[in-house]
Each structure stands twice: as C-alpha cells, then as structure tokens.
Write a structure and sequence with these properties.
single chain; about 70 residues; mainly alpha; about 0% strand; globular
C-alpha cells in the first residue's frame, strides 16, 4: 500500500521525527534514523518495501509491528 494524499513529508522524514517518543514507534524510528545516518535506510514507497528491508537485516517481531503501526499513524 502506498501512502498518498496531502502529505508534504515522506514517511521516512515523518518517522525520523518520531525518534524521541517513549514507545515502540519511537524505538523503531530511532533505529531507522541510525540506518539513515549510515546510508542504509531505503527511500521506499510502500510499507512492504520497508518491512522487506528490515526483514533482510534480520529484524523480527515487535519492531516490524511497530513499523506497521507507524505507517498507519502516518
């Protein structure tokens, strides 16, 4: 599913802004921002692209659910 509508910022930029939250979304945002700083976070268009990226990096369980929650909150 692709995020559409009147969004002015990308999902990644929105996610990075959430990194100081004290919840699971904040945790996955922090990790994603660290990957972005290292040039490893993808510029993807769909939730599935981001989930696939995380799975390829060995991520399982709660972080994947947190990313899914973040996507729907975005």
């Amino acid at each position: 599913m692709t995020a559409k509508g009147g969004r002015r910022v990308s999902f990644s930029m929105w996610l990075f802004e959430q990194r100081k939250r004290d919840d699971r979304v904040g945790g996955v945002a922090h990790d994603a921002y660290q990957e972005h700083q290292n040039g490893k976070w993808p510029e993807a268009d769909t939730l599935q692209d981001y989930l696939d990226h995380m799975k390829e990096r060995g991520v399982r369980g709660a972080p994947l659910r947190a990313l899914d929650s973040a996507w729907w909150e975005y």
